[in-house]
């Protein structure tokens, strides 16, 4: 199996094992296990798909499958979230308060313009296509041979954040009473972002931020392989990080930690 396939099989399997070792409702344990089985079956099916489709098509399928399965562990982790930890939320909020004070910023008194708000909300939405867009870049630049390296960095960075989330149960800042959020005007893209989160998220944060970790890891890989394209992706990744904080989607603490994890894993893998 490829390195990305190993990472995904091992991680979904470990989450399934953890579900049966931790005090969870049986229904939640079953959901975590079923998700692990679905992901493992998909990977096994792709691995043996060359028996009924062309070798090239099978290889391309295996290049792209990790992108389709990245959210499986996210949904698994969501089954472990039964209630937030108020003490953890207070600690995260207190760190943010000190961090903003150090920067000389008072979020509650900082009014964001409609144009900047639209840009930041659009940047946050870019987290969804960013990882597959990098695959397109690898194909277009003749760097498909670097696919294993790409998935090694991106999956490890993202899944380390998902794994740590099991020990950090917190609601996003925008839902936390008393948290001083930035003054953002309402925009259609912001409404769309919140609609997506209301319907498809686990109704809690991944801490550290999986979104930030995956986007920074993606940018770092492309910076090494195609610096000019990587610079564009890095700008997008930094915009995503800023948007998650300003929009109240994540705490500054878990955004900074996610970026640090992505950098450390990238450094270790090169």
- H/E series: HHHHHHHHHHHH
Our Rg estimate from Cα atoms comes to 19 Å
In DSSP terms, counting alpha (H) and pi (I) runs of 4 or more, how many helices? 12
Biggest beta-sheet profile: none
Structural class by secondary-structure content? mainly alpha
Percent range for β-strand residues? under 5%
Which regions are unreliable across 5 or more consecutive residues at pLDDT < 50?
Answer: none
Mean pLDDT over the full residue set? 93
How much helical structure, as a percent, in the residues? over 70%
User: What is the tally of beta strands?
Assistant: 0
Q: Quickly count the domains.
A: 2
Distance between the amino and carboxyl termini: 21 Å
**Morphology call:** globular
What would you say this structure looks like, in words?
The protein has 270 residues and is an all-alpha fold. The protein folds into 2 domains: 1-80; 85-269, no CATH class. It is 72% helix and 0% strand. The chain has 12 helices and no strands. The chain has helices spanning 3-21, 26-47, 55-69, 71-78, 86-103, 114-125, 127-140, 147-165, 188-200, 210-225, 227-246, 252-269. It is globular and about 60 Å long. The two termini are 21 Å apart.
Short description:
With about 270 residues, the protein is mainly α. Helix content is about 70%, strand content about 0%. Helix 1 packs antiparallel against helix 2 (about 25-45), helix 2 packs antiparallel against helix 3 and helix 6 runs parallel beside helix 9.
């Amino acid at each position: 199996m490829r390195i990305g396939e190993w990472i995904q099989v091992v991680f979904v399997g470990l989450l399934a094992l953890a579900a049966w070792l931790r005090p969870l409702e049986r229904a939640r344990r079953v959901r975590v296990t079923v998700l692990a089985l679905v992901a493992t079956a998909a990977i096994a099916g792709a691995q043996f798909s060359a028996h009924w489709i062309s070798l090239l098509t099978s290889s391309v399928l295996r290049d792209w499958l990790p992108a389709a399965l990245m959210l499986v562990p996210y949904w698994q982790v969501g089954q472990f979230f039964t209630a937030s930890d108020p003490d953890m939320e207070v600690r995260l909020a207190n760190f943010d308060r000190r961090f903003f004070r150090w920067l000389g910023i008072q979020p509650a008194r900082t009014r964001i313009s409609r144009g900047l708000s639209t840009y930041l909300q659009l940047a946050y939405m870019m987290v969804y296509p960013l990882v597959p867009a990098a695959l397109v870049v690898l194909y277009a630049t003749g760097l498909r041979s670097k696919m294993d390296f790409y998935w090694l960095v991106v999956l490890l960075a993202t899944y380390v954040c998902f794994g740590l989330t099991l020990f950090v149960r917190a609601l996003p800042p925008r839902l936390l009473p008393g948290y001083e959020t930035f003054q953002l005007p309402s925009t259609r893209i912001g409404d769309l972002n919140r609609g997506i989160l209301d319907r498809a998220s686990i109704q809690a944060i991944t801490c550290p931020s999986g979104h930030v970790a995956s986007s920074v890891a993606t940018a770092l890989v492309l910076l090494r392989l195609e610096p000019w394209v990587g610079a564009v992706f890095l700008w997008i990744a930094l915009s995503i990080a800023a948007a998650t904080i300003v929009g109240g989607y994540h705490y500054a603490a878990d955004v900074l930690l996610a970026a640090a994890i992505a950098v450390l894993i990238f450094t270790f893998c090169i």
